[in-house]
Amino acid sequence: MIELKNLCKIFKTGNKSIVAAENISMRVKEGEICVLLGPSGCGKTTTLKMINKIIEPTSGEIFVNGKNVTNVDNIVLRRKIGYVIQQIGLFPNLTVKGNISIVPKMLHWDKERIDRRAEELMEMISLDKSYLSMYPKELSGGQQQRIGVARALAANPPVMLMDEPFGAIDPINREIIQDEFLRLQKKIKKTIIMVSHDITEAIKMADKIAIFKEGVLQQFDTPDNILAHPGNSFVENFVGKDRTLKRLNLYSVVDVMNKTPFIFNDNDNVCDAIKIMHENSLASVFIVDKDKKPVGRLVLKDVKNLKKNDGKCINYMIELKSMIKIEENLRNISSQMYLHSKSSFVCVDNDDKIVGEISQDGISNFLNATYKKEPKGYENV
Amino acid sequence: MDILNFFIANYKEIAYRTEEHIFIVFLAVSFAILFGVTVGIYITQHKKTADVVLYIASIIITIPSIALFGLMIPVLSLINEGIGYLPAIIAVFLYSLLPIIRNTYTAIMNIDPALREAAKGMGMTNSQRLLKVEIPLSIPIIMAGVRYATVLNIGVTAIAAYIGAGGLGTFISQGISQSNSTKLMVGAISVSILAVMADYFLLFIQNKVTSKGLK
Q1: Do B121 and A77 touch (CB under 8 A)?
Q2: Is the ipTM of this complex over 0.90?
Q3: Which of A188, A250, A337, B186 is deepest in the core (most CB within 10 A)?
Protein backbone atom coordinates (compact mmCIF):
# COMPACT_ATOMS: atom_id res chain seq x y z
CA MET A 1 0.00 0.00 0.00
CA ILE A 2 1.23 3.47 -0.84
CA GLU A 3 -0.43 6.55 0.55
CA LEU A 4 0.41 10.14 -0.25
CA LYS A 5 -0.87 12.90 2.02
CA ASN A 6 -0.84 16.53 0.90
CA LEU A 7 2.40 16.09 -0.99
CA CYS A 8 3.77 19.37 -2.34
CA LYS A 9 6.80 20.28 -4.40
CA ILE A 10 7.79 23.85 -5.05
CA PHE A 11 10.86 24.49 -7.20
CA LYS A 12 12.56 27.81 -6.54
CA THR A 13 14.55 29.36 -9.37
CA GLY A 14 15.86 32.77 -8.43
CA ASN A 15 12.93 34.74 -7.06
CA LYS A 16 10.37 32.73 -8.99
CA SER A 17 8.83 29.62 -7.54
CA ILE A 18 7.12 26.95 -9.60
CA VAL A 19 4.57 24.63 -8.04
CA ALA A 20 5.27 21.23 -9.57
CA ALA A 21 2.92 19.29 -7.33
CA GLU A 22 0.17 20.75 -5.20
CA ASN A 23 -1.42 18.90 -2.32
CA ILE A 24 -1.35 15.47 -3.90
CA SER A 25 -3.26 12.96 -1.81
CA MET A 26 -4.03 9.45 -2.91
CA ARG A 27 -3.96 5.89 -1.73
CA VAL A 28 -2.92 2.91 -3.84
CA LYS A 29 -4.07 -0.40 -2.42
CA GLU A 30 -1.80 -3.39 -2.04
CA GLY A 31 -1.33 -5.29 -5.29
CA GLU A 32 -2.79 -2.53 -7.45
CA ILE A 33 -1.26 -0.74 -10.39
CA CYS A 34 -1.83 2.99 -10.33
CA VAL A 35 -0.96 4.95 -13.46
CA LEU A 36 -0.10 8.64 -13.13
CA LEU A 37 -1.28 10.20 -16.36
CA GLY A 38 -1.11 13.63 -17.92
CA PRO A 39 0.61 15.88 -20.45
CA SER A 40 4.30 16.69 -19.97
CA GLY A 41 4.98 19.11 -17.15
CA CYS A 42 1.84 18.12 -15.28
CA GLY A 43 3.63 16.92 -12.15
CA LYS A 44 3.22 13.17 -12.62
CA THR A 45 6.95 12.40 -12.74
CA THR A 46 7.66 14.80 -9.86
CA THR A 47 5.05 13.01 -7.78
CA LEU A 48 6.56 9.61 -8.59
CA LYS A 49 10.10 10.72 -7.79
CA MET A 50 9.05 12.21 -4.48
CA ILE A 51 8.06 8.74 -3.31
CA ASN A 52 11.66 7.46 -3.38
CA LYS A 53 12.96 10.97 -2.75
CA ILE A 54 14.91 11.33 -5.95
CA ILE A 55 13.06 14.64 -5.63
CA GLU A 56 12.77 15.82 -2.02
CA PRO A 57 9.16 16.83 -1.22
CA THR A 58 8.63 20.38 0.01
CA SER A 59 5.89 19.24 2.36
CA GLY A 60 3.49 16.36 2.91
CA GLU A 61 3.79 12.78 4.01
CA ILE A 62 4.35 9.41 2.35
CA PHE A 63 3.29 6.06 3.79
CA VAL A 64 4.49 2.72 2.46
CA ASN A 65 2.54 -0.24 3.81
CA GLY A 66 1.20 1.94 6.59
CA LYS A 67 4.63 3.12 7.70
CA ASN A 68 5.49 6.78 7.50
CA VAL A 69 8.63 6.94 5.38
CA THR A 70 8.89 10.70 5.18
CA ASN A 71 11.85 10.71 7.54
CA VAL A 72 13.40 7.34 6.67
CA ASP A 73 16.98 7.61 5.34
CA ASN A 74 16.95 7.96 1.55
CA ILE A 75 19.38 5.10 0.93
CA VAL A 76 17.51 2.67 3.18
CA LEU A 77 14.18 3.67 1.66
CA ARG A 78 15.32 3.29 -1.96
CA ARG A 79 16.65 -0.22 -1.39
CA LYS A 80 13.13 -1.24 -0.41
CA ILE A 81 11.44 0.29 -3.44
CA GLY A 82 11.87 -1.14 -6.94
CA TYR A 83 12.63 1.56 -9.49
CA VAL A 84 12.35 1.28 -13.27
CA ILE A 85 13.11 4.22 -15.57
CA GLN A 86 12.27 4.86 -19.20
CA GLN A 87 15.90 4.73 -20.36
CA ILE A 88 16.18 1.42 -18.44
CA GLY A 89 19.65 2.44 -17.20
CA LEU A 90 21.32 -0.97 -17.11
CA PHE A 91 24.98 -0.55 -16.20
CA PRO A 92 26.91 -1.44 -19.37
CA ASN A 93 30.02 -2.49 -17.44
CA LEU A 94 28.16 -5.21 -15.57
CA THR A 95 26.68 -8.45 -16.85
CA VAL A 96 22.97 -9.12 -16.59
CA LYS A 97 23.67 -10.96 -13.35
CA GLY A 98 25.83 -8.13 -12.08
CA ASN A 99 23.02 -5.72 -12.77
CA ILE A 100 20.27 -7.70 -11.09
CA SER A 101 22.32 -8.55 -8.03
CA ILE A 102 23.23 -4.94 -7.15
CA VAL A 103 20.55 -4.39 -4.52
CA PRO A 104 20.84 -7.91 -2.97
CA LYS A 105 24.60 -7.34 -2.67
CA MET A 106 24.07 -4.00 -0.98
CA LEU A 107 21.72 -5.77 1.42
CA HIS A 108 24.53 -8.28 2.14
CA TRP A 109 22.75 -11.40 0.89
CA ASP A 110 25.06 -14.41 0.73
CA LYS A 111 26.30 -15.57 -2.65
CA GLU A 112 24.13 -18.67 -2.79
CA ARG A 113 20.98 -16.70 -2.15
CA ILE A 114 21.90 -14.14 -4.81
CA ASP A 115 22.55 -16.92 -7.36
CA ARG A 116 19.24 -18.56 -6.58
CA ARG A 117 17.40 -15.24 -6.82
CA ALA A 118 19.05 -14.40 -10.15
CA GLU A 119 17.82 -17.66 -11.67
CA GLU A 120 14.38 -17.17 -10.18
CA LEU A 121 14.15 -13.69 -11.70
CA MET A 122 15.17 -14.92 -15.13
CA GLU A 123 12.41 -17.48 -14.99
CA MET A 124 9.95 -14.76 -13.95
CA ILE A 125 10.74 -12.63 -16.98
CA SER A 126 10.90 -15.72 -19.23
CA LEU A 127 14.51 -15.35 -20.32
CA ASP A 128 16.97 -18.23 -20.42
CA LYS A 129 19.57 -18.52 -17.63
CA SER A 130 22.32 -18.20 -20.23
CA TYR A 131 21.51 -14.48 -20.49
CA LEU A 132 22.89 -13.98 -16.98
CA SER A 133 26.47 -13.87 -18.25
CA MET A 134 25.72 -11.46 -21.12
CA TYR A 135 26.31 -7.74 -21.17
CA PRO A 136 23.49 -5.24 -21.75
CA LYS A 137 24.77 -4.26 -25.20
CA GLU A 138 24.27 -7.85 -26.37
CA LEU A 139 20.54 -7.67 -25.65
CA SER A 140 17.63 -6.26 -27.65
CA GLY A 141 15.67 -3.30 -26.31
CA GLY A 142 12.86 -5.52 -25.14
CA GLN A 143 15.21 -7.88 -23.35
CA GLN A 144 16.96 -4.96 -21.67
CA GLN A 145 13.61 -3.67 -20.47
CA ARG A 146 12.79 -7.08 -18.96
CA ILE A 147 16.15 -7.11 -17.19
CA GLY A 148 15.39 -3.61 -15.92
CA VAL A 149 12.20 -4.93 -14.35
CA ALA A 150 14.04 -7.96 -12.95
CA ARG A 151 16.66 -5.68 -11.40
CA ALA A 152 13.93 -3.64 -9.71
CA LEU A 153 12.33 -6.83 -8.38
CA ALA A 154 15.62 -8.35 -7.22
CA ALA A 155 15.31 -7.81 -3.48
CA ASN A 156 11.58 -8.49 -3.63
CA PRO A 157 10.44 -4.99 -2.68
CA PRO A 158 6.76 -4.66 -1.78
CA VAL A 159 6.35 -1.59 -3.98
CA MET A 160 7.63 -0.54 -7.38
CA LEU A 161 7.90 2.82 -9.04
CA MET A 162 8.03 2.85 -12.82
CA ASP A 163 8.75 5.98 -14.84
CA GLU A 164 7.36 5.38 -18.34
CA PRO A 165 8.77 1.86 -18.27
CA PHE A 166 7.56 0.93 -21.75
CA GLY A 167 8.22 4.29 -23.39
CA ALA A 168 11.43 3.38 -25.19
CA ILE A 169 10.15 0.21 -26.83
CA ASP A 170 8.67 -0.02 -30.31
CA PRO A 171 4.87 -0.33 -30.43
CA ILE A 172 4.76 -4.02 -31.36
CA ASN A 173 7.13 -5.15 -28.63
CA ARG A 174 5.51 -2.74 -26.20
CA GLU A 175 2.20 -4.62 -26.47
CA ILE A 176 3.96 -7.93 -25.88
CA ILE A 177 5.94 -6.65 -22.90
CA GLN A 178 2.89 -4.99 -21.37
CA ASP A 179 0.97 -8.27 -21.60
CA GLU A 180 3.90 -10.13 -20.13
CA PHE A 181 4.18 -7.64 -17.31
CA LEU A 182 0.48 -7.94 -16.49
CA ARG A 183 0.82 -11.74 -16.35
CA LEU A 184 3.81 -11.36 -14.04
CA GLN A 185 1.98 -8.86 -11.84
CA LYS A 186 -0.86 -11.36 -11.40
CA LYS A 187 1.67 -13.64 -9.75
CA ILE A 188 3.78 -11.19 -7.76
CA LYS A 189 1.04 -8.70 -6.83
CA LYS A 190 3.26 -5.71 -6.14
CA THR A 191 1.91 -2.30 -5.36
CA ILE A 192 2.95 -0.30 -8.39
CA ILE A 193 2.89 3.36 -9.31
CA MET A 194 3.65 3.96 -12.96
CA VAL A 195 3.99 7.16 -14.96
CA SER A 196 2.59 7.28 -18.47
CA HIS A 197 1.45 9.86 -20.99
CA ASP A 198 -0.40 7.31 -23.06
CA ILE A 199 -4.08 6.93 -22.22
CA THR A 200 -4.27 3.58 -24.04
CA GLU A 201 -1.43 2.18 -21.94
CA ALA A 202 -3.03 3.54 -18.77
CA ILE A 203 -6.37 1.90 -19.55
CA LYS A 204 -4.66 -1.38 -20.25
CA MET A 205 -2.36 -1.48 -17.23
CA ALA A 206 -4.12 0.40 -14.48
CA ASP A 207 -6.38 -0.58 -11.64
CA LYS A 208 -6.52 3.12 -10.81
CA ILE A 209 -5.66 6.13 -12.93
CA ALA A 210 -4.59 9.50 -11.53
CA ILE A 211 -4.89 12.33 -14.02
CA PHE A 212 -2.71 15.41 -13.45
CA LYS A 213 -2.74 18.92 -14.82
CA GLU A 214 -0.32 21.66 -13.83
CA GLY A 215 0.65 19.98 -10.60
CA VAL A 216 -2.89 19.31 -9.47
CA LEU A 217 -4.52 15.89 -9.27
CA GLN A 218 -7.65 16.15 -11.39
CA GLN A 219 -9.24 12.76 -10.91
CA PHE A 220 -8.27 9.52 -9.23
CA ASP A 221 -10.50 6.60 -10.14
CA THR A 222 -10.80 3.28 -11.95
CA PRO A 223 -10.18 3.40 -15.71
CA ASP A 224 -13.85 2.67 -16.41
CA ASN A 225 -15.05 5.50 -14.19
CA ILE A 226 -12.51 7.92 -15.66
CA LEU A 227 -13.76 7.06 -19.16
CA ALA A 228 -17.45 6.87 -18.32
CA HIS A 229 -17.58 9.76 -15.89
CA PRO A 230 -14.72 12.20 -16.47
CA GLY A 231 -14.68 14.57 -13.51
CA ASN A 232 -14.09 17.79 -15.45
CA SER A 233 -13.62 19.11 -18.94
CA PHE A 234 -9.82 18.68 -18.80
CA VAL A 235 -10.16 14.98 -18.06
CA GLU A 236 -12.84 14.61 -20.70
CA ASN A 237 -10.63 16.20 -23.34
CA PHE A 238 -7.63 14.22 -22.23
CA VAL A 239 -9.34 10.84 -22.47
CA GLY A 240 -10.68 11.79 -25.89
CA LYS A 241 -14.00 11.95 -27.68
CA ASP A 242 -13.89 8.23 -28.33
CA ARG A 243 -13.82 7.47 -24.63
CA THR A 244 -16.77 5.08 -24.83
CA LEU A 245 -14.95 3.07 -27.48
CA LYS A 246 -11.90 2.99 -25.19
CA ARG A 247 -14.04 1.40 -22.51
CA LEU A 248 -14.43 -1.57 -24.85
CA ASN A 249 -10.81 -2.43 -24.06
CA LEU A 250 -11.62 -2.87 -20.40
CA TYR A 251 -14.06 -5.75 -20.75
CA SER A 252 -14.02 -9.14 -22.31
CA VAL A 253 -16.79 -11.13 -23.91
CA VAL A 254 -17.49 -13.12 -20.77
CA ASP A 255 -18.46 -9.92 -18.89
CA VAL A 256 -21.12 -8.99 -21.39
CA MET A 257 -22.43 -12.05 -23.21
CA ASN A 258 -25.91 -13.47 -22.79
CA LYS A 259 -25.11 -16.69 -20.98
CA THR A 260 -28.45 -18.36 -21.71
CA PRO A 261 -29.12 -18.03 -25.44
CA PHE A 262 -31.79 -20.12 -27.15
CA ILE A 263 -30.10 -23.09 -28.76
CA PHE A 264 -31.34 -26.14 -30.65
CA ASN A 265 -29.73 -29.43 -31.53
CA ASP A 266 -29.04 -30.14 -35.16
CA ASN A 267 -31.52 -33.04 -35.03
CA ASP A 268 -34.37 -31.02 -33.53
CA ASN A 269 -37.46 -30.45 -35.59
CA VAL A 270 -37.22 -27.15 -37.38
CA CYS A 271 -40.85 -26.31 -36.57
CA ASP A 272 -40.15 -26.38 -32.82
CA ALA A 273 -37.42 -23.85 -33.38
CA ILE A 274 -39.71 -21.66 -35.45
CA LYS A 275 -42.32 -21.76 -32.73
CA ILE A 276 -39.86 -20.68 -30.05
CA MET A 277 -38.51 -17.91 -32.26
CA HIS A 278 -42.05 -16.57 -32.81
CA GLU A 279 -42.89 -16.79 -29.13
CA ASN A 280 -39.75 -14.93 -28.05
CA SER A 281 -39.59 -12.66 -31.09
CA LEU A 282 -36.09 -13.82 -32.05
CA ALA A 283 -34.64 -13.26 -35.51
CA SER A 284 -32.45 -16.33 -35.28
CA VAL A 285 -31.24 -19.13 -33.01
CA PHE A 286 -27.96 -21.10 -32.85
CA ILE A 287 -27.78 -24.78 -33.71
CA VAL A 288 -25.34 -27.06 -31.90
CA ASP A 289 -24.20 -30.61 -32.46
CA LYS A 290 -24.31 -33.38 -29.88
CA ASP A 291 -21.05 -32.11 -28.30
CA LYS A 292 -22.57 -28.67 -27.73
CA LYS A 293 -20.38 -27.26 -30.44
CA PRO A 294 -22.12 -24.57 -32.47
CA VAL A 295 -22.55 -25.54 -36.11
CA GLY A 296 -24.99 -23.04 -37.56
CA ARG A 297 -27.59 -20.38 -37.25
CA LEU A 298 -31.27 -20.79 -38.09
CA VAL A 299 -32.71 -17.51 -39.38
CA LEU A 300 -36.45 -17.00 -38.94
CA LYS A 301 -37.10 -15.24 -42.21
CA ASP A 302 -35.59 -18.12 -44.19
CA VAL A 303 -37.81 -20.74 -42.60
CA LYS A 304 -41.02 -19.06 -41.48
CA ASN A 305 -43.05 -20.47 -44.40
CA LEU A 306 -42.14 -24.07 -43.70
CA LYS A 307 -44.99 -26.44 -42.83
CA LYS A 308 -45.08 -29.02 -40.08
CA ASN A 309 -42.72 -31.99 -40.22
CA ASP A 310 -40.56 -30.37 -42.77
CA GLY A 311 -37.34 -31.79 -41.30
CA LYS A 312 -34.45 -31.15 -39.02
CA CYS A 313 -32.79 -27.87 -38.12
CA ILE A 314 -29.53 -28.99 -39.72
CA ASN A 315 -31.13 -28.92 -43.16
CA TYR A 316 -32.14 -25.26 -42.95
CA MET A 317 -29.42 -23.59 -40.98
CA ILE A 318 -26.75 -21.31 -42.33
CA GLU A 319 -23.26 -22.52 -41.51
CA LEU A 320 -21.36 -20.48 -38.94
CA LYS A 321 -18.35 -18.61 -40.28
CA SER A 322 -16.91 -17.31 -37.07
CA MET A 323 -17.05 -17.98 -33.37
CA ILE A 324 -15.77 -15.81 -30.55
CA LYS A 325 -13.63 -16.92 -27.67
CA ILE A 326 -14.87 -15.64 -24.35
CA GLU A 327 -11.59 -14.00 -23.31
CA GLU A 328 -11.52 -11.66 -26.34
CA ASN A 329 -11.92 -8.00 -25.46
CA LEU A 330 -14.96 -6.09 -26.60
CA ARG A 331 -13.02 -3.78 -28.87
CA ASN A 332 -11.86 -6.70 -31.02
CA ILE A 333 -15.39 -8.10 -31.10
CA SER A 334 -16.87 -4.79 -32.18
CA SER A 335 -14.30 -4.62 -34.92
CA GLN A 336 -15.33 -8.09 -36.12
CA MET A 337 -18.98 -7.12 -36.03
CA TYR A 338 -18.26 -4.30 -38.48
CA LEU A 339 -15.97 -6.48 -40.55
CA HIS A 340 -18.55 -9.24 -41.02
CA SER A 341 -21.51 -6.89 -40.83
CA LYS A 342 -23.04 -9.05 -38.10
CA SER A 343 -24.95 -7.90 -35.07
CA SER A 344 -24.28 -10.98 -32.97
CA PHE A 345 -21.78 -13.79 -32.50
CA VAL A 346 -21.80 -17.14 -30.79
CA CYS A 347 -19.33 -17.37 -27.90
CA VAL A 348 -17.38 -20.54 -27.16
CA ASP A 349 -15.02 -21.70 -24.42
CA ASN A 350 -11.61 -23.22 -24.99
CA ASP A 351 -13.18 -26.58 -25.93
CA ASP A 352 -15.23 -24.82 -28.63
CA LYS A 353 -18.43 -25.51 -26.70
CA ILE A 354 -21.18 -22.92 -26.80
CA VAL A 355 -21.35 -20.77 -23.65
CA GLY A 356 -23.27 -17.71 -24.79
CA GLU A 357 -24.10 -15.11 -27.35
CA ILE A 358 -22.85 -11.57 -27.74
CA SER A 359 -24.77 -8.88 -29.61
CA GLN A 360 -24.39 -5.23 -30.44
CA ASP A 361 -27.45 -4.47 -28.33
CA GLY A 362 -25.93 -6.41 -25.45
CA ILE A 363 -22.72 -4.37 -25.62
CA SER A 364 -24.67 -1.08 -25.86
CA ASN A 365 -26.81 -1.96 -22.87
CA PHE A 366 -23.78 -3.00 -20.87
CA LEU A 367 -21.88 0.23 -21.58
CA ASN A 368 -25.01 2.28 -21.00
CA ALA A 369 -25.77 0.85 -17.59
CA THR A 370 -23.21 3.05 -15.83
CA TYR A 371 -24.42 6.20 -17.62
CA LYS A 372 -27.98 5.53 -16.48
CA LYS A 373 -26.83 4.78 -12.94
CA GLU A 374 -25.28 8.22 -12.58
CA PRO A 375 -27.16 10.60 -14.81
CA LYS A 376 -25.21 13.59 -13.43
CA GLY A 377 -22.60 14.63 -15.97
CA TYR A 378 -19.75 17.02 -15.24
CA GLU A 379 -21.73 19.84 -16.89
CA ASN A 380 -23.91 19.98 -13.80
CA VAL A 381 -21.04 19.97 -11.31
CA MET B 1 75.17 -0.03 -39.97
CA ASP B 2 77.10 2.21 -37.58
CA ILE B 3 73.99 2.57 -35.50
CA LEU B 4 73.48 -1.17 -35.26
CA ASN B 5 77.09 -1.69 -34.26
CA PHE B 6 76.75 0.97 -31.59
CA PHE B 7 73.68 -0.78 -30.23
CA ILE B 8 75.50 -4.11 -30.05
CA ALA B 9 78.66 -2.61 -28.55
CA ASN B 10 76.83 -0.56 -25.91
CA TYR B 11 73.81 -2.69 -25.11
CA LYS B 12 74.61 -2.70 -21.40
CA GLU B 13 74.63 1.07 -21.12
CA ILE B 14 71.54 1.39 -23.31
CA ALA B 15 69.71 -1.07 -21.08
CA TYR B 16 70.77 0.88 -17.98
CA ARG B 17 69.70 4.23 -19.46
CA THR B 18 66.39 2.74 -20.54
CA GLU B 19 65.82 1.53 -17.00
CA GLU B 20 66.52 5.02 -15.69
CA HIS B 21 64.16 6.51 -18.26
CA ILE B 22 61.36 4.10 -17.37
CA PHE B 23 61.91 4.68 -13.65
CA ILE B 24 61.42 8.46 -13.99
CA VAL B 25 58.35 8.22 -16.20
CA PHE B 26 56.76 5.36 -14.28
CA LEU B 27 57.14 6.99 -10.88
CA ALA B 28 55.96 10.42 -12.04
CA VAL B 29 52.99 9.14 -14.07
CA SER B 30 51.93 6.85 -11.20
CA PHE B 31 51.79 9.83 -8.83
CA ALA B 32 50.01 11.83 -11.51
CA ILE B 33 47.34 9.09 -11.85
CA LEU B 34 46.69 9.03 -8.10
CA PHE B 35 46.57 12.79 -7.84
CA GLY B 36 44.98 13.55 -11.23
CA VAL B 37 42.14 11.03 -11.01
CA THR B 38 41.30 12.20 -7.48
CA VAL B 39 41.27 15.83 -8.57
CA GLY B 40 39.33 14.94 -11.71
CA ILE B 41 36.62 13.25 -9.65
CA TYR B 42 36.59 16.05 -7.09
CA ILE B 43 36.01 18.77 -9.67
CA THR B 44 33.00 16.94 -11.14
CA GLN B 45 31.28 17.77 -7.85
CA HIS B 46 32.60 21.34 -7.74
CA LYS B 47 31.98 22.95 -11.11
CA LYS B 48 33.48 26.33 -10.21
CA THR B 49 36.79 24.79 -9.15
CA ALA B 50 36.80 22.72 -12.35
CA ASP B 51 37.44 25.68 -14.63
CA VAL B 52 40.28 26.99 -12.46
CA VAL B 53 41.96 23.60 -12.12
CA LEU B 54 41.78 22.80 -15.83
CA TYR B 55 43.04 26.30 -16.66
CA ILE B 56 46.07 25.96 -14.40
CA ALA B 57 46.84 22.48 -15.74
CA SER B 58 46.63 23.83 -19.30
CA ILE B 59 49.09 26.62 -18.48
CA ILE B 60 51.58 24.17 -16.96
CA ILE B 61 51.63 22.03 -20.07
CA THR B 62 52.47 25.06 -22.25
CA ILE B 63 55.71 25.81 -20.33
CA PRO B 64 58.64 24.53 -22.40
CA SER B 65 60.30 21.67 -20.54
CA ILE B 66 63.77 23.21 -20.67
CA ALA B 67 62.35 26.38 -19.06
CA LEU B 68 60.60 24.35 -16.37
CA PHE B 69 63.87 22.60 -15.49
CA GLY B 70 65.59 25.97 -15.35
CA LEU B 71 62.91 27.35 -13.05
CA MET B 72 63.19 24.39 -10.69
CA ILE B 73 66.97 24.50 -10.28
CA PRO B 74 67.11 27.48 -7.85
CA VAL B 75 64.06 26.26 -5.93
CA LEU B 76 65.20 22.66 -5.51
CA SER B 77 68.78 23.75 -4.83
CA LEU B 78 67.51 24.83 -1.44
CA ILE B 79 67.20 21.13 -0.57
CA ASN B 80 70.25 20.19 -2.60
CA GLU B 81 68.20 18.56 -5.34
CA GLY B 82 68.56 21.20 -8.05
CA ILE B 83 69.62 18.62 -10.61
CA GLY B 84 69.10 14.88 -10.96
CA TYR B 85 66.04 12.66 -10.70
CA LEU B 86 63.82 14.86 -8.53
CA PRO B 87 63.31 17.84 -10.90
CA ALA B 88 62.77 15.36 -13.76
CA ILE B 89 60.10 13.49 -11.81
CA ILE B 90 58.39 16.71 -10.76
CA ALA B 91 58.32 17.99 -14.33
CA VAL B 92 56.91 14.76 -15.71
CA PHE B 93 54.32 14.71 -12.90
CA LEU B 94 53.22 18.25 -13.75
CA TYR B 95 53.00 17.59 -17.49
CA SER B 96 50.94 14.46 -16.86
CA LEU B 97 48.30 16.23 -14.83
CA LEU B 98 46.38 17.94 -17.63
CA PRO B 99 45.60 14.87 -19.78
CA ILE B 100 44.73 12.77 -16.73
CA ILE B 101 42.60 15.37 -14.90
CA ARG B 102 40.85 16.48 -18.07
CA ASN B 103 40.06 12.96 -19.25
CA THR B 104 38.79 11.89 -15.82
CA TYR B 105 36.61 14.98 -15.59
CA THR B 106 35.24 14.63 -19.12
CA ALA B 107 34.58 10.89 -18.74
CA ILE B 108 32.62 11.26 -15.54
CA MET B 109 30.71 14.31 -16.74
CA ASN B 110 29.68 12.44 -19.88
CA ILE B 111 28.18 9.43 -18.11
CA ASP B 112 24.57 8.99 -19.14
CA PRO B 113 22.44 10.77 -16.49
CA ALA B 114 20.01 7.83 -16.69
CA LEU B 115 22.68 5.56 -15.22
CA ARG B 116 23.23 7.99 -12.39
CA GLU B 117 19.49 8.12 -11.73
CA ALA B 118 19.18 4.34 -11.84
CA ALA B 119 22.06 4.02 -9.37
CA LYS B 120 20.50 6.59 -7.08
CA GLY B 121 17.06 5.01 -7.35
CA MET B 122 18.45 1.62 -6.32
CA GLY B 123 19.83 3.11 -3.13
CA MET B 124 23.54 3.30 -3.96
CA THR B 125 25.56 5.69 -1.83
CA ASN B 126 27.73 8.28 -3.58
CA SER B 127 30.88 6.23 -3.09
CA GLN B 128 29.21 3.01 -4.28
CA ARG B 129 28.05 4.85 -7.37
CA LEU B 130 31.56 6.12 -7.98
CA LEU B 131 33.29 2.78 -7.48
CA LYS B 132 30.79 0.46 -9.14
CA VAL B 133 29.50 2.61 -11.97
CA GLU B 134 31.25 5.89 -12.68
CA ILE B 135 34.91 4.87 -12.48
CA PRO B 136 34.52 1.53 -14.33
CA LEU B 137 32.67 3.36 -17.11
CA SER B 138 35.34 6.07 -17.27
CA ILE B 139 38.33 3.74 -17.44
CA PRO B 140 38.79 3.71 -21.23
CA ILE B 141 38.89 7.52 -21.36
CA ILE B 142 41.07 7.89 -18.24
CA MET B 143 43.47 5.32 -19.69
CA ALA B 144 43.63 7.25 -22.96
CA GLY B 145 44.81 10.22 -20.90
CA VAL B 146 47.39 8.09 -19.12
CA ARG B 147 48.72 6.81 -22.43
CA TYR B 148 48.96 10.30 -23.84
CA ALA B 149 50.76 11.52 -20.70
CA THR B 150 53.19 8.60 -20.82
CA VAL B 151 54.15 9.02 -24.46
CA LEU B 152 54.47 12.79 -24.09
CA ASN B 153 56.68 12.45 -21.04
CA ILE B 154 58.99 9.83 -22.48
CA GLY B 155 59.92 12.73 -24.77
CA VAL B 156 60.20 15.21 -21.90
CA THR B 157 62.41 12.85 -19.91
CA ALA B 158 64.87 12.72 -22.83
CA ILE B 159 65.51 16.43 -22.27
CA ALA B 160 65.97 15.86 -18.52
CA ALA B 161 69.40 14.46 -19.37
CA TYR B 162 70.55 18.09 -19.49
CA ILE B 163 69.86 18.45 -15.76
CA GLY B 164 71.63 15.24 -14.95
CA ALA B 165 68.63 12.97 -14.63
CA GLY B 166 70.21 10.37 -16.91
CA GLY B 167 67.96 8.29 -19.13
CA LEU B 168 68.15 7.77 -22.87
CA GLY B 169 68.49 11.54 -23.35
CA THR B 170 72.09 11.13 -22.27
CA PHE B 171 72.96 9.68 -25.69
CA ILE B 172 71.21 12.58 -27.40
CA SER B 173 72.90 15.31 -25.36
CA GLN B 174 76.32 13.65 -25.74
CA GLY B 175 75.69 13.06 -29.44
CA ILE B 176 75.01 16.77 -29.92
CA SER B 177 77.97 18.02 -27.87
CA GLN B 178 80.39 15.51 -29.43
CA SER B 179 78.95 15.92 -32.93
CA ASN B 180 78.51 12.16 -32.88
CA SER B 181 75.50 11.57 -35.10
CA THR B 182 75.49 7.82 -34.46
CA LYS B 183 75.12 8.36 -30.72
CA LEU B 184 72.43 10.97 -31.36
CA MET B 185 70.48 8.60 -33.61
CA VAL B 186 70.76 5.73 -31.15
CA GLY B 187 69.34 7.97 -28.41
CA ALA B 188 66.51 9.20 -30.61
CA ILE B 189 65.58 5.75 -31.93
CA SER B 190 65.64 4.26 -28.42
CA VAL B 191 63.31 6.98 -27.12
CA SER B 192 60.90 6.39 -30.01
CA ILE B 193 60.87 2.63 -29.53
CA LEU B 194 60.33 3.06 -25.80
CA ALA B 195 57.39 5.43 -26.43
CA VAL B 196 55.71 3.06 -28.88
CA MET B 197 56.22 0.07 -26.60
CA ALA B 198 54.92 1.92 -23.56
CA ASP B 199 51.82 2.92 -25.50
CA TYR B 200 51.14 -0.68 -26.55
CA PHE B 201 51.79 -1.93 -23.05
CA LEU B 202 49.29 0.55 -21.59
CA LEU B 203 46.78 -0.35 -24.28
CA PHE B 204 47.13 -3.95 -23.18
CA ILE B 205 46.53 -2.92 -19.54
CA GLN B 206 43.57 -0.80 -20.65
CA ASN B 207 41.97 -3.78 -22.37
CA LYS B 208 42.52 -5.88 -19.26
CA VAL B 209 40.84 -3.44 -16.91
CA THR B 210 37.97 -2.39 -19.20
CA SER B 211 34.75 -4.36 -18.75
CA LYS B 212 33.84 -6.57 -21.71
CA GLY B 213 30.49 -4.84 -21.77
CA LEU B 214 32.15 -1.58 -22.83
CA LYS B 215 34.12 -2.89 -25.80
Answers
A1: no
A2: no
A3: B186
